[in-house]
Write a structure and sequence with these properties.
- The protein has 11 helices and 9 strands.
- By secondary structure, it is α/β, with parallel strands linked by helices.
- The protein has 2 domains: 163 residues, Rossmann fold (3-Layer(aba) Sandwich), CATH 3.40.50.1220; 85 residues, SIR2/SIRT2 'Small Domain'.
- Helix 1 crosses helix 10 and helix 8 runs parallel beside helix 9.
- The radius of gyration is 19 Å and the shape is elongated.
- The structure holds ligand BV8 and zinc ion.
- The site of ligand BV8 has 33 residues, from loops.
Length: 259
């Protein structure tokens, strides 16, 4: 832990120095809220489910029943989940003006629930459903009710298939991604937390930050393809790291809250 402590205090120093710090989070920040991630060896969802069937447009259209079997299990874990120390610390840093915002690939809404205000949901969110044909949106509860009857949710307007409003493989990313990319060009510190950084175009935000002269820090249990260009890499569990980081920033976090 000694080496990790040294790196965490370096990160704390860079956070205090930064004019515009941003966090980029992946599914690894929600595993401690009991939401499984995708690629962790020995537990990731893609070891059980085929992403081509349950996370791609073609899979959704070919077998909506199979798609929704995956999603029903996922909804259940998301519904039970509570924000953890990583979500809470990022919200605290923002409230104290030490973090500009969170770019998240996660669709679980835990950053909002922890109190983060500026959240770029670059892979959408499962708070609503959307018709694949006419883009009509529906409260996710409606999608749920339909699912409970054993039927696949369909649009009341055009009869098209309704899916959770998340970005599937082969789908374009929402406006939030363009806004996040703009924010990255203005950032001087980008902190990637709990992401394998294997999914594009979000992963490209790392080299984008580097080319805008920002410092890049990666905190992840496993190696990532961008470790070699990062300024600081910490391969450790996020929970203990974030508690250590909160302790290193205690003084800055104890000052009066200002937005
Ligand atoms: C698009 C649905 C264009 C939402 C998902 C360039 C190069 C190569 C490929 C491509 C490319 N450009 C486009 C592609 C294709 C594709 C892609 O990237 N494929 C890759 C995988 C080969 N990208 C797309 O299709 C994207 N769309 O490009 O459209 C286009 C152009 C024209 C016309 C139409 C379209 C769409 C990508 C979004 C796919 N959606 N899922 C959902 O269900 O969430 S994928 C899935 O991966 C999720 O979205 C997730 O957000 C995303 C990233 O995963 P991570 O968040 O990083 O999670 P992962 O499990 O991988 O890693 C977690 C890490 O945390 C692990 O390393 C683990 O060790 C660590 N960890 C876990 N617990 C802890 C921890 N660390 C510390 N402490 C812990 N406690
Ligand atoms: Zn419709």
């Amino acid at each position: 832990m000694r080496d990790c402590q040294r790196k965490i205090s370096q990160l704390a120093h860079w956070i205090k120095e930064a004019q515009q710090a941003l966090a980029l989070t992946g599914a690894g920040v929600s595993t401690e809220s009991d939401i499984p991630d995708f690629r962790s060896p020995g537990g990731g969802l893609w070891e059980i489910y085929d992403p081509a069937r349950v996370a791609s447009v073609s899979g959704f259209l070919k077998d909506p029943e199979g798609f929704y079997k995956f999603w029903a299990a996922r909804f259940a874990s998301i519904e039970r989940a509570q924000p953890n120390v990583t979500h809470q610390l990022l919200a605290e840093l923002e409230a104290h003006g030490l973090l500009h915002g969170v770019i998240t690939q996660n669709i679980d809404g835990l950053h909002h629930r922890a109190g983060s205000k500026r959240v770029f949901e670059v892979h959408g969110s499962c708070r609503r459903g959307i018709c694949h044909e006419c883009r009509q949106t529906y409260p996710i509860e409606k999608v749920f009710e339909r699912l409970q009857t054993g039927a696949v949710p369909r649009c009341e307007g055009c009869g098209g298939l309704v899916k959770p409003d998340v970005v599937l493989f082969g789908e374009l990313l929402p406006e939030d991604f363009a806004l996040a990319a703009q924010a990255v060009t203005k950032a001087d510190l980008l902190i990637a937390l709990g992401s394998s950084l294997e999914v594009h175009p979000v992963a490209n935000l790392i080299p984008r930050a580097k080319s805008s002269e920002a410092r890049v820090v990666i905190v992840n249990r496993e190696e990532t393809p961008f470790d070699r260009i990062a300024d600081l890499v910490i391969h450790a569990e996020l929970g203990p790291c974030m508690r250590e980081l909160r302790a290193s920033l205690a003084k800055s976090l104890s000052t009066a809250r200002y937005i």
